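User: Quick sanity check before I run a bigger batch. Here is a single chain. Can you write out its predicted 3D structure?
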Amino acid sequence: MSLTAQVNFPRLNKTLTVPTGLFINNEFVPSVDSKDLIHAINPALEEVICSVVAASAKDIDVAVAAARHAFNTTWGKNVTGFERSRLINKLADLIERDAEELAELETLNNGKPKKIARDFDIGDSVQCLRYYAGWADKIIGQTLEVDNKTKLAFTRHEPIGVCGQIIPWNYPINMWSWKVAPALAVGCTIVMKPSELTPLTALKLSELVKEAGFPPGVINTVPSLGPVGGAALAAHLDVDKVAFTGSTITGRKIMEAAAKSNLKKVSLELGGKSPHLVFESADLDQAANWAALGICYNSGQDCTAGSRVYVQDTIYDKFLELLVSKVKATVIGDGLDDKTGGGPVVSKGQYDRVWGYIEAGKSEGAQAILGGVKRTSKGYYVDPTIFVNIKPDMKIVKEEIFGPVLSVGVFKSEEEAIKLANETTYGLGAGLHSNDANQCMRVSSALEAGTVWVNQYNLLNNNVPFGGKKQSGIGRELGSYALEEYTSVKAVHWNFGEKLEWPL
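Assistant: Done. Predicted structure follows.
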């Protein structure tokens, strides 16, 4: 098969050439032993965009070998931090140059609005690369006093080696940058497995990796089915670390495979069922804006989606009225239209999953006061749905939906609010709105989540760590903390004066 495809954008009157092969050693290649294909779908039209090579387990072996060779020869400890920084910055420049086309491709394959993909996802990815480019020549250890007359010790923070990186479909470019940037900064090499639902932008980014001048094998891209490529990376004996963003169920499988193989280092950013608390002192209009963002942004396909909002009883009715009006104002439609604030969910499987939860909410007695009605037109569109009259044991309250479905509950006291918020197996994100500073400190301290937002929601910064507690994962992304996930600390004990007498 040809290793490129012509992707048409009829509304934009343009065509984009997209690579469709596996990217190994800076070349797009076919599978060594498989004819299987991954069909990339446009979720707005329910049509195939193009098909790409699906990597087999043997292809993963080839990619890992390429990454190992690069680590031992042209990357790893063989290149200076200044050179790593230069190349990462060059890659950021190229992504910024091609932001328009990358955003269009992201919209076509993922469904999200082009303006969101361009201005937020890609804009943040460029910033992420530049942030870690700044770290590349600042990886330092410590000098430790042992005995000033005879000995000292020092530490070296060395790249851990070959990293398998498995990214999700909800933020294909953004999650690519979160994984790639810190790994490259410290000197690791990468085998990247994008989601089988959204492989196109990772392949397009691979072109830019080569153009930027990275040596062959430093970044390899192997689209494949999760049970094939993801499983092979997790169990591979020559992969030193695996980083995964996705579901808790899959995270468990990856951790088990890593433990049973070579006990490789693992970082996991998993699911969430994030609570959002609104206290009576809050700016209600602003709180409603942030709560709407928390569930509508990216059509609710967000690990930190604020899918449980709890409101103090004294302001419940007023806040609910505001919230409904804000969510109603969200335009869900074609991502290539600048008026659109949200697109379809990513796939037929995700569409059916979300609607299964909506129907479960209705059958368990919750009341849908907004949405909850299917469209008759083409496309995997789910209009934002708000449920009230909820109970803690309902599926829509307990389980991650990954769609624009919001459960709204009520509380009387601060203690009750905290209890409701923490009543979950997850611990990724949480939010609270209050103009009582003491309350903000008390509640933010009590919430069991890796990230807590106060009087805002769902905004992240590249210099601030992100990750979960409980079943939302282990390890941290972003900030200086992410560098630790890709480094191995070596202690060197240096004797320059002590003479050993033998026998003891």
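The chain has a mean pLDDT of 97.

User: Great, the batch can go ahead then.
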